[in-house]
Design a protein that fits this description.
With 228 residues, the chain is of the alpha/beta class. The protein is 32% helix and 24% strand. Bound molecules: adenosine-5'-diphosphate (ADP) (2 copies). Keywords: ATP-binding, Cell membrane, Membrane, Nucleotide-binding, Translocase, Transport.
Length: 228
């Protein structure tokens, strides 16, 4: 687990108008921060820079106290969960969860992989579904498999990009509870992008409001509505 510190982060795509215009934010080790804001305000861009899928134009990004601007995604030890899950259709639930462990060649024995996958499956109540393929799962179960892949990485932090936006209202409620429970149990630093107001007000320790590439406000969920 690690802190994430953004220092005056700027992102320009090509020679266009900056998508992110100098964002500074200190996210403490173990903290759960929600990132909200209108479509196009730079939320995804910010997440993608943190995970390393997008270059930072200027500013400093520190993870666990170390500057990581130039580090490849694999060396940042983060786990990102996307809204479309990105599961492999031809692999079972077990193999989907095990996938990140198999990528790191030779590092984990089959026994260790077994232990980690089963632990994640227990945490997410997927034990009875390990041999099934994604096509035979519900939306909520698929979302849990995607989270299982994040858990087995034993990442420094979780990054969620609107993970529940494809689910119906009932499932969204269930998954919200589950994500909150998982984050509390694991205590992993989390940045969570959403435009769902209920998620913003119930999940995080703090809510950061982004508007046109700038942080407009950072407050506790209650503080957000207690304007000065
Ligand atoms: P959000 O996630 O808040 O909807 P984005 O981070 O996707 O916002 O986009 C922020 C701004 O950057 C938008 O104006 C968008 O058009 C622009 N943008 C995003 N990705 C690219 C890209 N790959 N190339 C050029 N412009 C981009
Ligand atoms: P490869 O290591 O074979 O190039 P990928 O292209 O899938 O595999 O991923 C490259 C690196 O990016 C991985 O080693 C991993 O550390 C990181 N990575 C892949 N997917 C994610 C994710 N969902 N969240 C965070 N990091 C990821």
């Amino acid at each position: 687990m690690a802190s994430i510190v953004l220092k005056d982060i700027v992102k320009k795509y090509g020679d266009g108008f900056p998508a992110v215009k100098g964002v500074s934010l200190d996210i403490a080790d173990g903290e759960f921060v929600i990132l909200v804001g209108p479509s196009g305000c730079g939320k995804s861009t910010l997440l993608r820079m943190i995970v390393g899928l997008e270059d930072i134009t200027s500013g400093d990004l520190e993870i666990g106290g170390k500057r990581v601007n130039e580090k490849a995604p694999r060396d940042r030890h983060l786990a990102m969960v996307f809204q479309n899950y990105a599961l492999y259709p031809h692999l079972t639930v077990y193999e989907n969860i095990a996938f990140p462990l198999r990528l790191t060649k030779g590092q984990f024995s089959q026994e260790e992989i077994d232990r980690k996958v089963n632990l994640a499956a227990d945490t997410l109540e997927l034990r009875d579904h390990l041999e099934r393929k994604p096509a035979n799962l519900s939306g909520g179960q698929r979302q849990r498999v995607a989270m299982g892949r994040a858990i087995v990485r034993e990442a420094e932090a979780f990054l969620f990009d609107e993970p529940l936006s494809n689910l119906d209202a009932k499932l969204r409620g269930q998954m919200r509870t589950e994500i909150a429970r998982m984050q509390r149990r694991l205590g992993t630093t989390t940045v969570y992008v959403t435009h769902d107001q209920t998620e913003a007000l119930t999940l995080g320790d703090r809510v950061a409001v982004l508007k046109k590439g700038e942080l407009q406000q950072v407050a506790s969920p209650r503080g957000l509505y207690e304007q000065p």
